[in-house]
UniProtKB/TrEMBL annotation:
This is Putative NAD(P)H nitroreductase. SUPFAM superfamilies: FMN-dependent nitroreductase-like. Coiled coil: none annotated. Its EC number is 1.-.-.-. Residues 20-176 form the Nitroreductase domain. Keywords: Flavoprotein, FMN, NAD, NADP, Oxidoreductase. Its cofactor is FMN. Belongs to the nitroreductase family. Residues 180-200 are annotated as: Disordered. The keyword Glycoprotein does not apply. Residues 181-194 have a biased composition (Basic and acidic residues).
Length: 200
């Protein structure tokens, strides 16, 4: 059955999932999180992204339960090493980064030399996975947010995560059940962003 694109109601219904996307801060994410089987099902949808050359330039790490808190302790210690003069509030913020959402998934780009596919395209593929995972989670009634911060770029954190020489964290996807409805925010108007190229 084809969609009647002249009917605004059908269009709105078809795009409702995309139009409803919201980022929900970690402090507003509670239990339940996707269980291991549900997470695998979400990832099954999330990996259906554009992938020039079929390189599959990404992999995942998940954080649950006490592992989240243990990772937070390491982050706080590393934060103190990076900036010994920061306030205790800064270290506490880093300590609790993974303690709010019940599940965090690190999306890791696998890059390195490639004779055909530029690194930027492969990184873009991994980035698409982050967004697709958020969309899949929201479709099942969960919520999440894509975060990076210094811990996505720190060499010591990369060592803890077991990243290879040519791997990089694309994002930490915090997932759970929303404790409240995330408010809408102002979105850009595509009419102000779109121009049509014409030959000179």
């Amino acid at each position: 059955m084809s969609l009647n694109t002249s009917d605004p109601r059908q269009i709105d219904l078809a795009l409702a999932g995309l139009d409803a996307r919201r980022s929900v801060p970690p402090k507003q994410l509670g239990e339940p999180a996707p269980d291991p089987d549900t997470l695998l099902r979400l990832l099954q949808s999330a990996v259906r992204v554009p992938d020039h050359g079929k390189r599959v330039p990404f992999r995942f790490l998940s954080f649950r339960g006490d592992a989240r808190h243990a990772f937070g302790e390491r982050l706080a210690a590393r934060s103190r090493e990076r900036d010994p003069d920061a306030s205790e509030a800064v270290y506490e913020k880093d300590r609790s980064r993974f303690s709010h959402a019940p599940l965090v998934v690190a999306v890791i780009a696998q890059l390195g030399p490639d004779e055909k596919i530029p690194e930027s395209e492969r990184f873009s593929t991994a980035s698409c996975v982050c967004f697709a995972l958020l969309q899949a989670a929201q479709a099942l009634g969960f919520a999440g947010i894509w975060l990076t911060g210094w811990l996505a770029y720190d060499v010591e954190v990369a060592r803890w995560l077991g990243l290879g020489e040519h791997e990089r964290v694309v994002g930490y996807i915090h997932l759970g059940t929303p404790k409240l409805d995330a408010p809408e925010r102002e979105r850009p108007d595509p009419r102000e962003l779109l121009t049509e190229w014409t030959p000179a």
